[in-house]
Structures are given as structure tokens and as C-alpha cells.
Design brief:
Number of domains: 1
Radius of gyration: 13 Å
Distance between the termini: 37 Å
Order of helices and strands: HHHHH
Structural class: mainly alpha
Number of strands: 0
Shape: flat
Length: 89
């Protein structure tokens, strides 16, 4: 459990921009490891999601997902683009 706690702590110290980068990397790697259900990349994606939710900025997670999706050669849908827009107060 220490590895998970350490990772969650690391995420909490990242800037918003760095959280997006981390999310992009872990989402891409999780997709690459789809044939391995025990891959750490899966729970790391969940941790990135949880961190964005805790910050009240779900668009950060979506931005990371979108970047991973595009880097894998896919085109974003309008709903994906909309979900990645920062919510204005």
C-alpha cells in the first residue's frame, strides 16, 4: 500500500499542468497494458482521476485523457473537447 500512498502524495504536490501531463502518460500506458489487468498503470489512472476530482477540476483529467487519445492516433469528439474546457466560475 505504500507505493499507492506515495503516488497519491506525489500527485497532490503536482501543479495542474503537471497533473495533466501525468494523466496523459498514465492513461496512454494503461491502454498499452490493457492485456494485463494487474498493471499499476490502471490504478495510477484512477489516482489521477481522484486527484482531479479532489481539486474540483475534472477538466484536468479529461485534458490528459484527450492528449493520450490524440497521441495514440485518434480524433477527439466534440464532447471530449467540451469536457476538457476549464469551467469558469
Amino acid at each position: 500500500m505504500t507505493e499507492r500512498n506515495d503516488y497519491v502524495g506525489k500527485l497532490s504536490r503536482l501543479s495542474d499542468a503537471k497533473l495533466v501531463e501525468e494523466t496523459e502518460q498514465k492513461v496512454w500506458l494503461s491502454g498499452f497494458a490493457a492485456n494485463n489487468p494487474r498493471s499499476a498503470y490502471h490504478w495510477q489512472c484512477d489516482a489521477c482521476y481522484d486527484e482531479a476530482k479532489q481539486r474540483g477540476k475534472m477538466w484536468l483529467y479529461q485534458q490528459g485523457c484527450n492528449k493520450a487519445y490524440v497521441s495514440a492516433g485518434y480524433e477527439l469528439s466534440e464532447s471530449d473537447i467540451d469536457a476538457a474546457r476549464e469551467v469558469q466560475p
